[in-house]
Amino acid sequence: MGQLVKVISSQSADRMKVTLLEGWTVEQFSDELKDKLQIDSFEFIRLSQDYDFIHSLNLDAPSLEGFLFPDTYILLKTYTEEEILRILVKQYDHNYRLLLQEFKSIRCMNMLEITALASIIQGEAVHEDEMPIISSVYHNRLDKNMLLQADPTIQYIIPGKSRRLYNKDLDVDSPYNTYKYKGLPPGPINNPGLEAIKAAILPAETEYFYFVSNGEGRHIFSQNNEEHNQAKLELKRKRRFKRKM
Known about the structure:
By secondary structure, the chain is mainly α.
């Protein structure tokens, strides 16, 4: 309420509209806020990793990665980095609890685990209608104690911008490497949006364990490794055919 009063009573020149996108990392949030509000990006990132500050927000997580809600905000230019982080986390907590009330989690997963899974779904999906299906693949793998083998977790631990992954990248020794370690990573890998969180809480009911990108923003889902390899082979044929045209 105090923040709302400050915004309403401020001069319009002191207010700034800022849009933070689904799937952005803390660093990308920081870059956008620095550009729009001239915040200290180093302090923003430092606070997002500060144990005491994180726990003052009633979060049990390795960082604030994943808990900064992507949305369009009206922020004051006078806000400190701490005030902005508190606003973003409160917005996440508000939306997360509304979803739990609406859907009731049917899985034995806590907030950190759901958010970590939602961030992987966010990293994989281009289209929101595929999110519950992608979620079902990961839930099915978790239930069978299989490796998640989620490419976005590899992108997260590789420095720089997202790029094509190579086999050597899958050998990087990190607890976030889901090709090497079973279960969910220690924390989220980006800040997921509402639909990804919803999908993590309530996946579609499928028997899929595999999927591969068709190169056009969608995925082909398979129930077993044989179907999965066949789908990959068919996609390779299509790509070769296109290159010859």
